[in-house]
Design brief:
Elements: H1 3-10, E1 28-34, E2 37-44, H2 52-67, E3 71-78, E4 95-102, H3 110-123, E5 128-132, H4 140-143, E6 163-165, E7 168-172, H5 187-200, E8 206-212, H6 219-227, E9 232-237, H7 241-256, E10 261-266, E11 271-272, E12 279-280, H8 287-295, E13 299-302, H9 307-314, H10 319-322, H11 327-344
Helix pairs in contact: 1-2, 3-11, 5-6, 7-8
Amino acid sequence: MSEKQIREALSGVVPEELGVDLVSAAAVKSVEAGEGRVAVHVQLGYPFDGVREHYESLIREALEPVLGGDRLELTLDHAVVPHRVQEGLSALDQVSNVIAVASGKGGVGKSTTAVNLALALQAEGARVGILDADIFGPSQPIMLGVAQGTRPETPDERSFAPVEAHGLQTMSMGYMVDELTAVIMRGPKASGALQQLVTWTRWQALDYLIVDLPPGTGDIQLTLSQRVPVAGALVVTTPQDIALLDARKGIEMFAKVGVSVLGIVENMAVHVCSNCGHVEHVFGEGGGDRIAQQYGTPLLGSLPLSRSIREQADGGQPTVLAHPEGEEAGLYRRTARNAAARLSLQAPGERSFPKVVTRH
């Protein structure tokens, strides 16, 4: 048996989330054979704790025919590296990858999706932060159950310490004002406030910073796209025709400023009656898939229209926390893995802080 045989066998292993084989993804880091043993190190560029056993099984099954009775010593882990951002921008200190979560219009469940995806990435084994970029209507503090009146610590006059919530590093305009206080400012000031929240927060060794954008394609979105280094964006939509129209605007905005769209997340795709189990496509069917095909980007996940998802977010315990073993949490985790895997295939960027050993 040779290293070539091992690599040829691994070239047939295609993790569903990754969409390409392990060899093509440069995930096979080393192969050593000799003395009745074969040591293989596979390292993926995204967290995958939820499917670790499945991945191990795929690899062992692929290698079994070529081992010739030798013992397989498999090391399977992940390491998240920075990926390329817009031209002319440098990576944020202590943040490997900024992922923007956007929607062309309000009411599509973008913020609920953003917080659950952040928690899902964390559950998969990543270090994650979330920035609530909705200056006028911040909602993440409520969704994360942060006590009203919580303020970030200010070690000096030009920095904030992120507020920790359920293991996430978080920052929001909601920490700066009372939840009943209206934030009134013109576009340039709002854009400046966002930039301060991003750059003045002392994030600590994050693999991913999820940025929950306000809906639309206005000043806030353009500021983030032009001044904040973004590795990739997710566009959240419902199957409704008007939502899809606005989602297209978001995709085209990111394309114009050089931000890669990782894919589409279709929210409220289907409603299952809690009494009789009847399935109904309240907002239409297949819209997310159509727009994904039109723009050559993947449909990362389809999430249901569910009262429990809304109630859990409103109660400060998003679905991934409230019912981590439930079907809906599993959908969020699969969507998060799909997005992170898609990002892992993009061109690398530069790291702005010392490499942190990932949890295996």
